[in-house]
Every structure is written in C-alpha cells, then in structure tokens.
C-alpha cells in the first residue's frame, strides 16, 4: 500500500534532505521506503509530494500538472539559468532592456514546457540532456 505525503521543502534543501528531515521528525516513518514525485531545485521552496510505502507506481504521479511561481532578475544570463551560475553573455544596459521588455514579457507569459539547463539531473537513456534555448532577437 502507498501513501502520498505533502512536505514543505525549504530553500537550500535537496528533496532527499527534505525526506530525511521528515523521517527524523516522524519516527513512525523512519524505516518506510519513500521517493519524491518530481524534483525541486535546492534553491526552490514549496510543496514536495512524497510517495511512501509501495513506490512502484511512482511513474503515474510524474505526469501531474505543476505550477511554478518565480521571480525574474533581468539584465544577464548564466550557464545554469539561475543566480548560482557563471555569467554567460553580455550584460544588458537598462536602455536595451527597456526597449526589449514587451518582447521579453510576452515570451515568458503563458504555459511553458520547462527547458532543462545544461547542469541538470534530467537524463534520458542514461545520458544527460543538453538544453537548447530559443533566444529572443534584439
């Protein structure tokens, strides 16, 4: 039998660390097999679904819809698509950004399929995927 548990993952915590924190605080689950139903980056915080007990049907949960809320820091790019990466590309001056802002906002609005960054845990057939990003022309 399996059980879905909703945990709050803290910033700086990996999904595995979140599970271990829960097990430490909840002795009844100390020896229960658990897996997370989708990853959250260590920089992210929020709801993390955990499957406890019989984890064989994990795949049936991975296609559930997800919603992400994020903040955008304009003016530079990094190799990891976040503030932890190395700056990769020309820094944009406020004048350049102001002119491009309508196109940039239009680009990020609506439903998206997330592009995996070069530094990602996403793999297919045992190989890590390399992201290809569509750039907005200036």
Explain this structure.
- By secondary structure, the protein is α+β, with helices and mostly antiparallel strands.
- It has three helices and five strands; from the N terminus they run βαββααββ.
- It has helices at 15-25, 59-62, 94-108, and strands spanning 2-9, 34-36, 46-53, 123-124, 127-128.
- The protein has a three-stranded antiparallel beta sheet, covered by helices on one side. Strands 4-5 form a two-stranded antiparallel ribbon.
- A hairpin with a 2-residue loop joins β4 (123-124) and β5 (127-128).
- Residues 128-138 have low confidence and may be disordered.
Low-pLDDT stretches are 128-138
Rg from alpha-carbon coordinates: 19 Å
Continuous helix count: 3
Order of helices and strands: EHEEHHEE
Annotation, overall tally of beta strands: 5
Structural class: alpha+beta
Shape call: elongated
Mean pLDDT: 80
Distance from first to last alpha carbon? 55 Å
Helix amount: 10-25%
Within the largest sheet, what's the order of strands?
Answer: 1-3-2
- Largest beta-sheet details: 3 strands, antiparallel
Percent range for β-strand residues: 15-25%
